[in-house]
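Memo to structure team: turn this sequence into structure tokens by end of day. - J.P.
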Amino acid sequence: MLSKAEFLEFYPQFSSFTPDVVLLEFLRQANARFSDFGEDTEEARRLYTAHKLTMYATTSLPAETEPTMDMIAAAGKGSQNRIASKKVGEVTVTYSNTNAVSGAAASLQDLNETVYGLQLISLLKIYGFGRYIP
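Reply from structure team:
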């Protein structure tokens, strides 16, 4: 089981993350959802936790900001259209509608939003998506 101390030893950039209850909850989820990844089990747990903390942080406001109901609603909503692909020369951007995904794929749709999630996708491909329990 991945502990808070082990996670923070590997990812010290999260050492000042607050609230602590959120970090502990994502660790609990990671420990429950990832158990059959061989020698990469702890790596999968670390990546999942770092991904979830990063996603959580994108919905939080700076400490000095007084949140309004509109800010809270917008943070909780997220982007409906995410960039699916991009091209630099002659600028091309393709968007995907995240609401179009359902079933098992829906539980994985946010992994491409962080570098931690992208690394976790690589592990899921190696070991098979069926080993992840949403």
